[in-house]
Each structure stands twice: as C-alpha cells, then as structure tokens.
Amino acid sequence: MTVKLGLVGTGTVGGGCLDILSAHRDDFKRLNGIDVELVRVCSRNSETAAAHGVEDLFTTDFNDVINDPEVDIVIELIGGTTAAYDLVMGALRAGKNVVTANKALMATHGSEILELAREKGLEVAFEASVGGGIPIIGPLTHGLHANGVSSVLGIVNGTTNYMLTRMSETGATYDDALAEAQEKGFAEADPTADVDGFDAAAKIAILSTIAFNTPVNLDDVYTEGIRNIMPTDLAAAKEMGYCVKLLAIGNRTDAGIDVRVHPTMVPLSHPLATVNGVFNAIYVVGDAVGETMFFGEGAGAGAAASAVMGDVLEVARHVQQGCTNQVIPGNDGLSLVPMEELTTRYYIRFVVEDRRGVLASTARVFSDHDVSVYSVIQRGSNENVSGVDLVYITHTAQERDIRAAIQDIRALDGVLVSGQEPTVIRVQK
Predict the structure, then answer these.
(1) pLDDT tens-digit profile of 1-17?
(2) Which segments are annotated as binding site?
(3) Neighbours of 90 (CB within 10 A)
C-alpha cells in the first residue's frame, strides 16, 4: 500500500522534508516496508516547489490538499495559529491524519485538536514542535508512559542558550551577544519570541500536558526572558558554583503542577549545566526510570525536517496497518500552582549608592517580609559606574514574599541607581 502525502508550507523545514523524501523514499520502502508518495504541495509561491521538481503537484490553496481524496496524511508546516488551525482542523474533519511542527498551535489549541483526532480515530503527530530533532514527544507518550513523571526541565531555545553561553564565556553584554547570534543566523531580526521566553513557554506547555496528563495552555505558563541578565550576574553565579540558563520547567507538586519559564541558576553538577551554545536538552525524572536527559540540536532545517519525517513514517506505518497508535493525553484534573506560591531560593541584585545605611535598610525589608538571607555581597560593577552591586542570596522563600520585599526595597532612598531594575534569578534546587 502506498500512503499519499500532502505537504503545506515549503519554507526551511518544508524544503528539508522535500529533500528527505527525494533522497530516501526508496530506502524507506526497502528498509522499513513503508511506501510514501507526495501527491500535493501547497505554498504561497511556487519557487520552492519548482526548485525541488514538484511543480506538477503545486497549489496555493490548502483546501486542495484537504479535499484531495488521495491524501492520507497532511503535513502542516506553515506556522502560526490562524490558517494553520483551519488547515489542521479541516484535515481531521476530512478524515486525514496530521503531522505538524507547530508549537504555537499545539500549545494554544492542542487539547481541541487532539480531541477531534480522538473522535475521528485519527493521529496528530507533533514531535518537531518541541526540541527540533531531539526525540521527546515519542519517549514521553510511549517509552516513558509507564512512569509517573515528577519533573520536566528543558533548555529548549537555542538562541538564548547561545547568548548566555557567550555572555558567560567572553563577558559579552546582552546586546553584543544578541548581535552575534543574529549575525550567525541563530536569532531572528525580531528576537522577541526567543529572548522573552515565549518560544520556550509554548514548548513546556506541550511537554507538561503530556507529562502530567493535564491540559496546559500557553497562557498558563509564567514567562520571563533574559533581557535583564548581565555578565556580572553570570560571573557571580560561576563564583557560587552555578551557571545561568533559560529553563522551561514543569514540576508535579503536592499542590498540583508548577509550569514556568525564566532564567535559572543551575548547579554546575547538574547535567543541564554542560549544555552550551545552540544545543538543547530536556531532562525528565520518572518514578521508575529515574533521571533521563535528551540532548541535541533543537533547531535548523535538517533537525526539524528529520523529526517531521520520522512522524510521517510512523503515521504511514499505522495507515498501512489500518490502526492508530497515538497516546492522547487525558485530564487528571491537576491544579496549576500560581507563580506566587512558588518556593525556591533566589539571587537578587540591586544597583545601589555606595554609602552607609543602604545595606542595613534593604536587609531590614527582607526580614520584615520573612525572607531569610543566606548571603549578601556588595561590590563594584564594570557595567554600573555610578553605583555598586548589592547581591542577595536567599534561603528558600515564597515568590509572593520576594515580590513584596523587592517592591518595598525599590522605594528606598539610594536604591535603583540610574533607574536600573533589580535582577532576579531563581535558583534550581
């Protein structure tokens, strides 16, 4: 049986899929017994289709793909949450399986999409939506399915990991690291989705939904980026035996599930501390398997196309066998723990005037809010010639108490020199 494919979106990843199909279709049939044939290609322009020799299959209307009775699997690679939503839902209603790399779509409408797939007895595969070429959706839904997962931690954005690595290794400023990342093609001209944490938030929403069997949407994820991180913060972290990573975190707690994205001080002994540059890694803790980590390149045409085509072949196998084999998350009804209830340790840096009384007054505010201070360091800073850095490390404290203390400290005389906002980095236990 030949399984027929319709591909929508011929950008970087779509072009990579066309290359894989052209190079390896005969290998798929010979080695795996899976015969797949591309019968429709849809895009806003025909240039990529012509460059790959599939112009005879080309259309500019994705409804032509949905309505083609030959198509068994629709591959959605257009991105976004509007037209992509219409395409995926339309394909499912038309009785077609779907493969997508669209993290924003799955983080926003994933529950609705998977429920429709369940009703129709179809599959929606989305391995490439998280981690690019790193296999993680499959392991969570199959290989680790027998576990009760307690924690999912991820460095899931290569742009910010590259920037933080360069800032730590060379002392580069945020602006310099961003410019270098853009020059090398690791960061977009508009880096907002990466540096403000939204890309990572979409990914941890998907991972948490699967890991904890509870719907988590993008809007449920507390999100904070790396714009306020300075080289002095990275140097201080290193002195204390930590590095700083933008972590996507999902934890199962007694109160429910805690899902967030923010810069985090990671102990240098932790496996994630060794993940540098554009590499990504996802660290999963299960009650039976213990600690596991999935590592690799999280982006790029080859990595993402590899994951997409892996999904295509797996779904095609099921089409040939006349079955579906998708583990669709249910709803255990776990509560989402508000960020204000988080308890962890904190690194907090203020830029203050170098004069008597400032240290005592700030310390008094922490005490008033029941925040126990582990250590305090006052030192000059290369970045802040008009003030000094006052760095606090707390014992375990609650987020709401930290926020209240910082708000009161902001109002003190001699704090926030030159209008510089405090830097807050949560410390991974």
Answers:
(1) 899 999 999 988 999 99
(2) 8-15, 103, 188
(3) 17
